[in-house]
Design brief:
homodimer, alpha/beta, Rossmann fold, 6-stranded mixed sheet, 47% helix, globular
């Protein structure tokens, strides 16, 4: 299991290339939920999501022999672009396996960073199969999306930046997909803010981590139907599970309707665009699921890469 | 005519109540136009637009006798909310004359700050008539939208903040409606950045200031059909004209299509929501109307209060 020192090391690696994203506030939001709320705006991060942090930390840690072989990742979303940009900055060739149905703008985004895109069938089984083939046939080095120490340490640098801007924090709300973001930030936050409670947030349909936390074993669910596409992973990873049980205080859920309402609030009142998964942790704060009052809380906005057609539908 | 010292004085007045808005950057934007671009994000300002700066500076300057009488303003847009919030903070009763057709969310926003809303017919003649009546009958003090020294000085505090964050600036692009924002910021910028060129930007249909600058006299146009609702004023003010001729280096135009493209770029790439008028100055930079290269430039985003229905249409 990683320690805070791994995240400090990751921070020195990623600091020169990531944006330090702002902590946003809103008097209306504070009044609505009766707490002092900070939103960590990773929608303003490079590639539009936190994923660049872990991907860069991972690829930067490879030996020069490994870098020469090139890297492979499978993703239809932000991890693809994170790996593509990180590899490009480090002069490493990246191959990204994407489902045939991936949105054209995400395919174009990934290619724009110089990555080769290999298409596969839409199931996650086929994604893994094709990525595995490329790993063997071409000798490519895999960059996993979340179940990896360097990835987890990289994602944990979000909390390092939060602690540069606020001294005291009672609650940190983090969205959970495969568990990379919450694992890194739970380890970091518990060192940086000794009294903080770290809360994972999922949508109701994508509640595998909610069940996992209560059963104390990894629960795998069927592919969930949720608007939060970053939460369509069926279970969290093994390393992520170990950190979850040791460092996370609770896992809660919000409805897809609350996510949509939150996206609208962020657009209309705070003038920012977030993707559905990015609105999940703010929604838990806005609707005050934990019934807190007078606390300093922070919710992580994981990203802002929403499909314009979906955004239109939401409006 | 106001001097920079008036803007410095205004800055001390408004500093405790306005947000210091960020200067946003985008590597994609820089690459696209081959300049180093900063966007001053007044869409993140209180009430969602710069108008709070001038309104607060004006109302704070009133005598206690005037404050006791209350203030009146006419506006269908951001000035209404700016006056309403500024008056509310200062404990002054505000009456806002709004056209019957004003969007319900703007009426609700204005009322939410405790202002009384009086409806009038949709023509700007009727707005002025009703506001004039209230001024006489109730003894209310008018808060003009732009042709006023205290309003101009307040709006000029935008440039004071810009100068806190960047040392050198070659070009400052400012959208022009009635001329309050550009007048204050032209005076301020020429003191803060001695070599800066200050450029006004309008949409092609709303080009009264473009014509005014060239004719060297105030040109009044018919109500322009432009997506940039903040530019539907028919002419700039007298005080604004005087400053324009002395401090502004050029006035240029962009098409409504470029404004819509810019709004999309800001949503999709920079994850921020701006109103059409707020995208006008960035559009001039993005499309590099002046054919600059390698310059440090800043464009002011005037606000973010876009009607969700219009935003939907744009997407």
């Amino acid at each position: 299991m990683i320690a805070f020192s791994d995240i400090e090391a990751a921070y020195h690696v990623v600091k020169p290339i990531v944006h330090k994203t702002p902590l946003l506030t809103s008097a209306t939001l504070d009044r609505h939920c009766d707490n002092r709320v900070f939103l960590k705006a990773e929608n303003f991060q490079r590639i539009g999501a936190f994923k660049i942090r872990g991907a860069y930390n991972k690829i930067a840690s490879l030996s020069s022999a490994e870098r020469n072989r090139g890297v492979v990742a499978h993703s239809s979303g932000n991890h693809a672009q994170g790996v593509a940009l990180a590899a490009s900055i480090l002069g490493v060739q990246a191959t990204i396996v994407m489902p045939k149905s991936a949105p054209p703008n995400k395919v174009a985004g990934t290619k724009s960073y110089g990555a080769e895109v290999v298409f596969c069938e839409d199931s996650s089984d086929d994604r893994e199969r094709v990525a595995g083939l490329l790993e063997k046939e071409r000798g490519l080095v895999p960059v996993p999306p979340y179940d990896d120490d360097m990835i987890i340490a990289g994602q944990g640098t979000v909390a390092v930046e939060i602690a540069q801007d606020i001294r005291d924090l009672a609650y940190l709300f983090v969205p959970v997909g495969g568990g990379g973001l919450i694992a890194g930030n739970a380890v970091a936050a518990k060192s940086l803010f000794p009294k903080v409670k770290v809360i994972g947030v999922e949508t109701e349909a994508a509640n595998d981590c909610y069940q996992t936390f209560r059963k104390k074993e990894i629960v795998r669910i069927n592919p969930p139907a949720t608007i939060a596409d970053g939460m369509r992973t069926q279970s969290i990873g093994k390393r992520n599970f170990e950190i979850l049980m040791e460092y996370v205080d609770d896992v809660i859920t919000v409805s897809d309707e609350h996510v949509v309402d939150m996206m609208k609030f962020l657009i209309e009142r705070m003038k920012i665009v977030v993707e559905p998964t990015g609105a999940v942790a703010p929604a838990a704060v806005y609707h005050n699921v934990l019934k807190l009052a007078g606390k300093t809380v922070c919710a992580v906005i994981s990203g802002g890469n929403v499909d314009p057609a979906l955004l239109k539908k939401i409006l």
